[in-house]
């Protein structure tokens, strides 16, 4: 008999096998995330996982905690309501690049601006995978997708730069090759107050990988290993991703500032005192 | 701070409908509001923003209506009673999450202070043309509950009813005000807090190992849980089984959808709220709702003076539609006159249900102001010819 999976206790085993393709990186991100939760010592009953729609949107459904699979792009505003109504909850949003940055882009910048006390883990596989590999806001310039069949001529977002500019307190990026660092970053992001953001660069061998002739999941991992450069503290303006080029990974931002709830509580207290 | 301190402002006030709705929501126990400014509804969130620091509530002005209409659902699953407020052009942006609240059975209140449309239309002037988008604007099959108050006093009273119905049936309840009701000021009497009936959330008494998130009780409504209580539940907008797990199949859909529809349709009688004044010898009955029901009063008086036997039916709960009541009226009278500030929404329902038993006449209005009592009076004369 195989030894039990060490993260099994936090998975909905009655829903396994999951829907993700062989070689997909989402499972790796979930594995690192659950290990981070286990190390965090946060009571599991207080942890909520919220997802939107898409391949990564399915994460909430496999984690055996209070979990919410909401609408496309709207995981963050749902999570905002959850957190504000019960600040004791630790709320984590798991989301894909299309979900979080295209349709959910407005919510992303505003949650970051408010320094809302939520962790966002964004699995970036450079395309809309659930719907069959369409071009997205992170698809690298010239990369092929089903709705950019001659190569994408749009400029993609640099997610760490976007998160920092909008007001995040913590920003990191890793690939699914960097499991130790990714888990460590997730742990730090979850434990830290404020809007914390971890980008996870992930293979999508079935769609993005196939269309761009990048081979199976393993080839992509070899590419990550060879081309990733760890630069902790690098300015986020230098983190643009070019098609099959160097990937700068690391922890880029880790600052302290008051959260939405800190500000609200402090102000409301003052308002109540002066009204008496 | 203690949650109910200063929450219920007992006594007589001079309030706009928007402010009365705000106070009613607070009295109903609403402690989370997410909103986005839109004329003519903004008075509600402005007062909420002023009042919430003193009642232990959280107000957040979100980045758009899409965000407002889902943030409140997060708050509900964390245990709060919650609402959002908008007008027609905001309501259609919220359709995505009315559907979500329906399928996830999230009790919450959507206030719509209606204005003239379509699109930007008449921001500062009234309309009643959101009745169908409130009922079926999201895709898929479902039923909701919609109430239409006709005064600031009713904005206070019936928004409490709206919160109570939301909890009882685990459904988004649409509170269909209009620009007139929202902006008019009238006397509003707020009763003592202990005289206000509040329906608590239907929390399960079962322990996590026995509990199923969507196992319905006798009235087809399942008992609820909230985040943080150790149930480790899963809520999804996908078609789901009783565990709450997604099941993408025709069979699961055939289990879920009829229940969501029937929990409202089969309970219509329990939800029904009408104001009926139909003498036995009535020849014609006027059907109206919201601000329009105040305009028709004068027309009815005028007709009565002329010796016309006229009755009146005012829909306070518009959806679910009181089919049996109207079917019965259609069999007793010569004609039904439907007066609404649109070009035929509730009218077509009345016509369908009357099934040819009575002549059904629409007195339409494009919005921007209320009907002239004269127009309604002329239709009454026409109806009894």
CATH architecture of the largest domain in chain B: 3-Layer(aba) Sandwich
Instruction: Please provide the ordered H/E string of secondary-structure elements of chain A.
Output: HEHEHEHHEHEHEHHEEH
What's the number of helices of chain A? 10
> And the CATH topology of chain A?
Rossmann fold
Q: Going across the major beta sheet of chain A, what is the strand order?
A: 2-1-3-4-6-5-8-7
- How many DSSP E strands of chain B? 16
Largest sheet of chain B: 8 strands, mixed
Please give a structural write-up.
The complex is a heterodimer of chains A (276) and B (385). Chain A is an alpha/beta fold and 276 residues long. Chain A is built from 10 helices and 8 strands. Chain A has a single domain, classed as Thiamin diphosphate (ThDP)-binding fold, Pyr/PP domains (Rossmann fold), CATH 3.40.50.970. An 8-stranded mixed sheet of chain A has the order 2-1-3-4-6-5-8-7, with helices on both faces. In chain A, strand 5, helix 7 and strand 6 form a beta-alpha-beta unit. Chain A is globular and about 70 Å long. In chain B, the strands form 3 sheets. In chain B, strands 2, 3, 4, 5, 6, 7, 8 and 14 form an 8-stranded mixed sheet that branches. Chain B folds into 2 domains: 185 residues, Rossmann fold (3-Layer(aba) Sandwich); 112 residues, 3-Layer(aba) Sandwich (Rossmann fold), CATH 3.40.50.920. Chain B is of the alpha/beta class and 385 residues long. Classes of the chains: A alpha/beta (276), B alpha/beta (385). At the A-B interface, strand 2, helix 3, helix 5 and helix 10 of A face strand 2, helix 3, helix 5 and strand 10 of B.
């Amino acid at each position: 008999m195989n030894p039990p999976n060490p993260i099994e206790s936090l998975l909905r085993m009655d829903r396994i096998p999951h829907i993700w393709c062989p070689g997909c990186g989402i499972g790796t991100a979930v594995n690192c995330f659950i290990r981070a939760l286990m190390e965090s010592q946060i009571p599991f009953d207080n942890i909520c996982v919220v997802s939107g729609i898409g391949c990564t949107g399915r994460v909430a459904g496999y984690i055996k905690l209070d979990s919410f699979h909401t609408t496309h792009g709207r995981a963050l505003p749902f999570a905002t309501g959850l957190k504000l109504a019960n600040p004791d909850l630790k709320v984590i949003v798991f989301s894909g690049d299309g979900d979080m940055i295209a349709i959910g882009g407005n919510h992303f910048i505003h949650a970051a601006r408010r320094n809302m006390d939520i962790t966002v883990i964004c699995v970036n596989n450079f395309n809309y995978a659930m719907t069959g590999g369409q071009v997205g806001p992170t698809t690298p310039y010239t990369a092929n997708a089903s709705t950019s069949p001659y190569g994408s001529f749009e400029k993609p977002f640099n997610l760490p730069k976007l998160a920092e500019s909008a007001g995040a307190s913590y920003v990191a990026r890793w690939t699914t090759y960097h499991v130790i660092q990714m888990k460590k970053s997730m742990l730090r992001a979850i434990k830290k107050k404020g809007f914390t953001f971890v980008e996870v660069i992930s293979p999508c061998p079935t769609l993005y990988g196939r269309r761009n002739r990048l081979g199976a999941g393993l080839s992509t991992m070899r590419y990550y290993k060879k081309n990733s450069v760890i630069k902790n503290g690098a300015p986020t303006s230098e983190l643009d991703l070019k098609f099959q080029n160097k990937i700068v990974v690391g922890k880029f931002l880790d600052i302290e500032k008051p959260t939405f709830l800190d500000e609200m509580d402090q102000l409301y207290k003052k308002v109540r005192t002066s009204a008496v | 701070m203690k949650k109910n301190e200063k929450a219920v402002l007992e006594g007589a006030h001079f309030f706009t409908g928007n402010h009365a709705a705000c106070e009613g929501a607070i009295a109903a126990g609403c402690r989370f509001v997410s909103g986005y400014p839109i004329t003519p509804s903004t008075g509600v969130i402005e007062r909420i923003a002023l009042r919430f620091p003193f009642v232990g509530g959280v107000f957040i002005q979100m980045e758009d209506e899409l965000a407002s209409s889902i943030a409140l659902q997060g708050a509900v699953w964390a245990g709060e009673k919650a609402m959002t407020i908008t007008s027609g052009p905001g309501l259609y942006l919220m359709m995505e999450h009315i559907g979500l609240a329906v399928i996830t059975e999230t009790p919450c209140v959507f206030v719509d202070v209606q204005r003239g449309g379509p699109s930007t239309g008449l921001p500062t002037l009234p309309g009643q043309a959101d009745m169908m988008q409130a009922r079926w604007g999201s895709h898929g099959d479902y039923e909701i509950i919609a109430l239409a108050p006709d005064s600031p006093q009713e904005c206070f009273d019936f928004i409490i009813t709206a919160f109570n119905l939301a909890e009882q049936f685990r459904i988004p309840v649409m509170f269909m005000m209009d620009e007139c009701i929202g902006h008019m000021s009238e006397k509003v009497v707020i009763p003592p807090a202990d005289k206000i009936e509040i329906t608590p959330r239907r929390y399960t008494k079962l322990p996590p190992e026995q509990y199923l998130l969507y196992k319905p009780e006798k009235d087809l409504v399942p008992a609820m849980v909230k985040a943080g209580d150790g149930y480790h539940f899963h809520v999804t907008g996908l078609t789901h089984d009783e565990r709450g797990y997604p099941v993408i199949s025709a069979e699961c859909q055939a289990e879920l959808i009829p229940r969501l529809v029937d929990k409202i349709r089969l309970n219509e009688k329990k939800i029904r709220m009408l104001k009926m004044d139909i003498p036995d010898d009535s020849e014609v009955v006027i059907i109206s709702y919201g601000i329009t029901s105040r305009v028709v009063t004068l027309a009815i008086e005028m007709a009565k003076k002329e010796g016309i036997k006229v009755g009146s039916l005012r829909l306070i709960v518009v959806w679910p539609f009181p089919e049996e009541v109207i079917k019965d009226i259609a069999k007793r009278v010569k004609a039904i006159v439907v007066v609404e500030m649109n070009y035929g929404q509730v009218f077509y329902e009345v016509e369908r249900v009357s099934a040819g038993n009575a002549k059904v006449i629409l007195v339409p209005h494009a919005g921007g102001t209320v009907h002239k009592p004269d127009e309604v009076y002329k239709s009454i004369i026409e109806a009894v010819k």
